Amino acid sequence: MMGPAQTVRARVFEAPGEALAARELRLAEIRDDLVRVRLRASGVCGSDLHVADGDWTARGPLVLGHEGAGTVEEVGPGVKDVRVGDGVVLSWFAPCRRCRNCAGGRAWLCQNTKALENTLPDGTTSFEAPDGEPVPAFLGLGTFAEATVVPESAAVKIPDGVPFPVAALIGCSVTTGVGAVVNTARVRTGDSAVVIGCGGVGQAVLLGLGLAGADPIVAVDLSEERLALARELGATHALGGDDPDLEDHIRSITGEGADHAFEAIGRAATMGMLTSLVCRGGQAVIVGMPAEGVTVPLDPFDLADGGKRVLGCNYGSSVPSVDFPKLARLYASGRLPLDRLVGRTATLDEVDGALDDLRRTVGLRTIIRHGNGS
Ligand SMILES: NC(=O)c1ccc[n+]([C@@H]2O[C@H](COP(=O)([O-])OP(=O)(O)OC[C@H]3O[C@@H](n4cnc5c(N)ncnc54)[C@H](O)[C@@H]3O)[C@@H](O)[C@H]2O)c1
Ligand SMILES: [Zn+2]
Ligand SMILES: [Zn+2]
């Protein structure tokens, strides 16, 4: 049963290739360990686009958006870690905190999360249509809405003073990109690195490489604007993704190949190229996510002979309750200039245009602003 109707405006995926529907939905009633969060900002991530464009199987209706931050508005009786009024970053991987992986400190591999099924932990949905039809939320969040309902483990308090657009980006691209460097690859000072794809996630990889003291840092993208930003964020070299001699150029900069190569686009061709860009003993880190079913060829002789590793990176191998506040503190102390990743502002009504920005690589990360939060 729903409590007193809390109705919000939301943008809903119905079918691939269609504009997101503008719907008025009711929020789930607050109970147990659930938290209602009034959204203040939401990024628009490549993963939202994968759903909107049909790269990934998803059934509509589904409230899209998974890179968000806001203010806690109501908490259930079992909630211990956040209070009404707290500023929180939402985690798209609400961990169960009890399974073998959670207990072992690897929350990003939680075996019990329901977030990947787009529901709350008990299998019910965060939203419902006026006729009672359950409406799931993408990755259990649905940040393209004025407010949402999530389990406590998906709402992480962050220090005051972090602007909501920056906080929103910590919810996905920043945690993924910086985490890929410091948690997944464990880059050491002076290691060389290549980043292929310098969008929201790739620019965060570059910031992580700066933090880790990597050198040289080679940025690769098709967009001049992205490459210019990459240089400002610490890339020592910038190369065009359409450069026919890309491998040779990377080798001439890094010597025998890079210690680490990150793919942050999600394209088969660039993923397939990664292991040839790293030196003997080097690491190829897959951060971008391709369409379902895509495979890439590997050269096992080169991998074995060169002692190379291929690492998959989910959510920057991060634990939200530990890593979100850490990233927020690094921002506050000036070590991570996350505000440089914030692009133009759009309203909830303009989400389709924001998805188009992503398709056409226009501008930086567009931020959907909800209400008047700063
Ligand atoms: N592993 C994870 O946990 C995780 C988390 C978030 C996002 N992702 C994935 O990361 C990928 C990137 O997401 P994003 O939000 O940064 O997208 P984005 O669109 O902002 O960035 C993609 C970038 O790749 C560049 N690009 C495209 N084709 C290229 C080419 N041939 N050579 C070089 N550069 C090229 C584009 O110009 C753009 O700058 C997506 O696949 C997304 O699903 C993965
Ligand atoms: Zn994302
Ligand atoms: Zn778990």
Automatic annotation (TrEMBL):
Gene3D superfamilies linked to this entry: Medium-chain alcohol dehydrogenases, catalytic domain, NAD(P)-binding Rossmann-like Domain
Is Metal-binding one of the keywords?
Answer: yes
User: Taxonomic classification, please?
Assistant: Bacteria, Bacillati, Actinomycetota, Rubrobacteria, Rubrobacterales
SUPFAM superfamilies recorded for this chain?
GroES-like (SSF50129), NAD(P)-binding Rossmann-fold domains (SSF51735)
> Where is each Enoyl reductase (ER) domain found?
17-368
Record GO terms (molecular function): oxidoreductase activity; zinc ion binding
Q: Which PROSITE patterns match?
A: ADH_ZINC (PS00059)
Q: What is this protein called?
A: Alcohol dehydrogenase catalytic domain-containing protein
> What InterPro entries does the entry give?
ADH-like_C, ADH-like_N, ADH_Zn_CS, ER, GroES-like_sf, NAD(P)-bd_dom_sf
Q: Which UniProt keywords apply?
A: Metal-binding, Oxidoreductase, Zinc
Domain of life per record = Bacteria
Coiled-coil boundaries: none
Name the cofactor(s): Zn(2+)
Please verify whether the record's keywords include Coiled coil. no
Q: Which family does it belong to?
A: Belongs to the zinc-containing alcohol dehydrogenase family.
Tell me what organism the protein belongs to.
Rubrobacter tropicus
